[in-house]
Design brief:
Elements: E1 9-10, E2 15-20, E3 23-28, H1 30-36, E4 39-43, E5 50-51, E6 56-62, E7 66-70, E8 75-80, H2 83-86, H3 90-93, E9 101-105, H4 117-127
Antiparallel strand pairs: 1-2, 2-3, 3-9, 4-6, 5-8, 6-7, 8-9
Length: 128
């Protein structure tokens, strides 16, 4: 059973958003890192890049597969997790502790389109 954390927002494409004030930390879920296996590379946008809800912003590559990263929200990238450049496997160790990008949220109402922990857990159970 994959770990799901209360209080985060989840996308069907297995990204999460942790909201702190006007910022959102976006990463992939525990379910996603489990499905991918050993992560060997994370392709991230640059600071000041714009991301759009439902659009790709990078990719995660594992020894098994590559998976596009789909932004669950729109905003401007204010920080990337540089630790992942040298150690992408940190996502395998703790997917929720190792976010990929931090964005300044441009439209908080987009969060209403995402799932809470209970709904996301049910989605993962169906996909297993």
């Amino acid at each position: 059973m994959s770990k799901v954390i209360e209080g985060l927002y989840y996308a069907e494409s297995h990204e999460y958003v942790k909201v702190e004030g006007d910022y959102g930390y976006i990463g992939i879920t525990d379910y996603a890192q489990n499905a991918l296996g050993n992560i060997v590379y994370v392709d991230m946008p640059e600071v000041d890049d714009e991301v759009e809800a439902g659009e790709g912003f990078g990719a995660v590559e594992s020894v098994k597969a590559a998976s596009d990263l789909i932004s669950p929200v729109s905003g401007t990238v204010v920080e990337v997790n540089e630790a992942l450049e040298d150690a992408p496997e940190l996502i395998n160790k703790d997917a929720f502790g190792n976010w990929i990008i931090k964005v300044s949220l441009s439209d908080k109402s987009e969060l209403d389109n995402l799932m809470d922990a209970a709904v996301y857990s049910a989605l993962c159970d169906k996909q297993d």
